[in-house]
Amino acid sequence: MIQDRRITVPLLLLVIGEVLIFNGLVVQGMAVYIFNLSILYILIIQGGGDGAVALMQRLLLLPLFRIMIIAMPISFSSTRLYWYLLVGCAMLPAIYIATKTGRLGYGEPGVNRVVLKYIPVAIVLGSLLGIVERRILNPVPLLSDVSIAHVLIFISIMLFIASVEEIIFRSLIQTAFEEFYGMPNALLATAVLYGIMHSGYGNGSEIAFGIFSGLILGYVFQKTRSLPLVVLIHSFEGVFLFSYLFS
Asked: According to a count of CB atoms within 10 Å of the terminal CB, is the N or C end of the chain lower?
């Protein structure tokens, strides 16, 4: 287990930024995130242990991702789905760089590990999570057209968005935390970060649910080391959350 106190400042700034956003101080929250990016850049340039630098390079993804999400319209509408798609595409180069600089092969983040026997369980689990989250947020459906083409496009977008988020939180952040804090603490820390980054909805129940959902996704990832499996859970959660077909 690695210890580096420099990691505390960026993590604390992440929490402060989300507290501000949760209380409606979005501009101030954005400013904290931009300041956090600067801190992380400085720490990476200063260097240090390979593990610490790798973790900070991966932590960079969270402020970048959050700033782009904040820039999106927060209201539920069909256009929001495509904003998520654009944000996901914009994050791909940063994810690629974090993966390459961390010298991660396809095996370590679980990209190439598919556990077929758990796929039905993943679909059911994701669906249940989506149903519960729908009761919390009660969003306007982003899919109301029952045509096969629209359903396939919607599911494809959900898979893509889930893939981007799960690569960031599970394959990169959680695996780095495991090296720093050990498996149980890494699971908890990643789940808390995942939950508090749902503060933009201004709903405390959604943050609590995000932490709960993060614990489930993180636990499944730790036990199976299968990125496709957690992506499947996450994507079906999104399908049941935002589709009129399952409301």
From this structure: N
Return all residues near 218 (Cβ < 8 A) that are at least 6 apart: 169, 170, 174, 186, 187, 190, 191, 194
CA 126 and chain centroid, separation: 15
The pTM for the full model equals 0.86
> pLDDT value at position 96?
85
> Which stretches of the chain are DSSP H helices?
8-22, 26-46, 50-59, 61-70, 78-101, 119-137, 148-166, 175-181, 183-196, 204-224, 227-242
Q: Which of 87-91, 201-205, 211-215, 235-239 has the highest mean pLDDT?
A: 211-215
Q: Which of 45, 44, 92 is nearest to 68 (CA)?
A: 92
Assign 143 a pLDDT band (cuts: 50, 70, 90): low
Q: Quick check: helix, strand or coil at residue 172?
A: helix
> Residue 149's Cα: distance from chain center in Å?
27
Task: Name the 3-class secondary structure at 102.
Answer: coil
**DSSP code of 178?**
H
Choose among 128, 117, 86: nearest CA to 237: 128
Helix (H, G, I), strand (E, B) or coil at 21: helix
How does DSSP assign 36-70, residue by residue? HHHHHHHHHHH---HHHHHHHHHHTHHHHHHHHHH
Q: Which residue has the tokens 């083409």?
A: 149
